[in-house]
Amino acid sequence: MRIQRFTFNMHRPRNLIWLLMFFFCGALSNSVAAQAVPYAHSFSKSKEEVEKALTELQASTGQKLPIVEGFVVPGDQPLDRYERAFYQFTIDVLPGTASGDTIVRVSAKITAWYADRDPSKSGYQVLASNGRLELDLLDRLADKFGGKPVTSLLKPEPQVPLPRIDLSNGPPAIPLTPRGFSPPPAGTAASSPGDEITALATQRGVEEKRVQQLTAELQGLQDIQRNQAHPNNLVIVKKSGTPVMARPAEGSHILFNAAADDEFEFIDAEGEWIHVQISGASRGYIRRNEMDLPEAIAARMAPENGNAGGEKPAAFRIEREENSTFPGDWEPLKGKTVKIYTVQPSSEEPKETGAAAKLRYAASLFKKSSVDSAVPSVEGIVVIFDSADGGIIASSLSNSRQFAVGSMSQENFWKQSFMDPPEAFRSTPNPQGSPLQQK
User: 85 - beta bridge partners?
Assistant: First the structure.
């Protein structure tokens, strides 16, 4: 993931798994969430009059709640942590028991954002209404018709709402009737408790089938994740906030901060720095101790292998990087713009900063720069070793690119490179001429 792979690496199956788990949990929560309990009252008005009054009261329009305390049934979570509360009425207008009467049945659905101390546990929740909102609406409807307040006809303190029908152990022997609701007579268009049981059982079956489908899809993706071939050239960030630097140097510009488990394609290693591909042509550097490396890369970078990712190249560090005119008379780069790296030894041990170490370090910079160089005018790369036994080594950009992709051998590359003085890059004198001799 980075491309700045901030938490979302949707190209990886495990993110799809988390997405499915979200919907999976949502499907389960919908089936067990606090169910709204209807409150009902009969009015001596026609259905048309009741519906008109409800429209004038804007009863079907959702409204915000300033707080949830006093409107919901207290649960396990502290009520003062709920924000952005909102409620919506479900209203049924049914024929009454007497001719010309109309029953209004109301239930309120309350949702609110729960702000947990752990942000990952925050989210919208459905809260059980304690009946205050429903009774208030029925009271306002009664006032509109000039009748008595509904609360005077019911118990002054609403009971804790319970699910209308519990189907976990099959249909109940005795149907439950909502408080204050008078069932319509036989033969009317209103649904009977038996019809409600059938409807709820059907809905439960649909939800269970959906949960089974999501479970099967989740299992399938988990199998894919276990069986897929994971690329062996990806390095993984250990913790969130890890800086990705523009150059392998302390104090370099920070491109962005990576998140934990972000994956990057490994390009090369320069001492304590890992050179990674971010996205497309974008590159960056991350400290080696902040990355988890695949076994193949870790083994290749072991110090005993003498690799550019081992400890030997760490004997040098980049002090300055600039684009300037080539500082010499070497014909291939004379008067041309080049990228110049000025490096200094970070070790005082001569064996660690000798000719072989210089060549290894210079080779890593030639490879890196041949890929990273995006300035059209740059035609070569120069490495200046700023030390008493230092020296200058340079190459044309075209040769560096051939060397980086393997189309030019290391021996031929050094033959066609500039070295001043050549002795600074030879481990032992070679009277007959060395492949590292300046050409």
Answer: 65
- Give the tens place of pLDDT for each residue, 355-404: 888 898 889 888 887 776 555 678 999 999 988 788 999 999 999 888 88
Per the CB < 8 A criterion, the answer to whether 283 and 377 are in contact is no
- Cα–Cα distance measured from residue 71 to residue 130, given in angstroms and rounded to the nearest whole number: 6
Specify whether 38 is located in the same domain as 169. yes
Distance CA 375, CA 437 (A): 30
Which secondary structure element, helix H or strand E, spans residue 193, and what is its range? Answer: helix 193-227
Q: Which of 127, 155, 190 finishes a domain?
A: 190
Token output for 139: 């009271």
Q: Same structural domain for residues 319 and 270?
A: no
DSSP structural state of residue 168: B
For residue 36, give the amino acid letter. A
CA distance 422 to 419: 5
Same domain, 301 and 410: no
Tell me the per-residue pLDDT of 231-246, one tens digit each, with 9 for 90 and over: 678 899 999 999 999 9
Containing domain of residue 155, as a range? 33-190
